[in-house]
Design brief:
- The chain has 139 residues and is an all-alpha fold.
- Helix content is 86%, strand content 0%.
- Helix 1 runs antiparallel to helix 2.
- The chain starts with 6 loop residues before the first helix and ends with a helix.
Length: 139
C-alpha cells in the first residue's frame, strides 16, 4: 500500500517549506526593525519635548534678566539725572570738609560699587543664559 511520490513533487514540497520558513524569518526581522524604529521615534519625541521645556526655561530666564537689566538701567538713568541736576558743590575752603559731606560721598561710592557688582553679575548671568540657549539650539 506504499504509493510512490513523484520526486519532483517531493522537491516542490521541500522548496515550499523552505520558502515559507524564509518568509517567516523575513517577517520576524521586519517586525523587529519596525519595533526598533518605533522605540527610536518615541525616544526622540521625548527628547524633543524635554528640549522644548529647557528652551522655554532659558527664554523665561533671559526675559527675567532683560527686565532686571532694564530696571537697573532706569535706576542708573535716574541717578545720573539727579546727579546732572545737582551742580557740583563749590570746593570747600576750610581745611576739613564737614562729616555729613564725607558720609554722603562714602555712601555714594558704596552705592556705585554695588551697582557695578550687580551689573557684572547680571552680565555673567546673561552670558550663561545665552550660552545655554546656543547649546540647546545646537542639539
Amino acid at each position: 500500500s506504499f504509493i510512490p511520490i513523484d520526486e519532483s513533487f517531493s522537491d516542490k514540497i521541500t522548496n515550499f517549506s523552505t520558502i515559507q520558513l524564509n518568509l517567516k524569518k523575513k517577517e520576524r526581522r521586519l517586525n523587529e526593525r519596525e519595533l526598533s524604529v518605533k522605540q527610536k521615534l518615541a525616544s526622540s519625541k521625548q527628547r524633543e519635548e524635554s528640549l522644548k521645556l529647557q528652551e522655554e526655561r532659558v527664554t523665561d530666564l533671559a526675559g527675567k534678566v532683560r527686565k532686571q537689566q532694564i530696571n537697573l538701567k532706569e535706576q542708573k538713568l535716574k541717578f545720573d539725572r539727579i546727579k546732572a541736576i545737582k551742580p557740583p558743590s563749590p570746593p570747600n575752603t576750610s581745611s576739613r570738609p564737614c562729616s555729613f559731606c564725607n558720609e554722603k560721598e562714602i555712601r555714594l561710592r558704596e552705592l556705585r560699587g554695588k551697582m557695578r557688582e550687580r551689573m557684572g553679575v547680571l552680565s555673567q548671568r546673561e552670558a550663561y543664559v545665552i550660552e545655554k540657549a546656543h547649546e540647546l539650539r545646537r542639539r
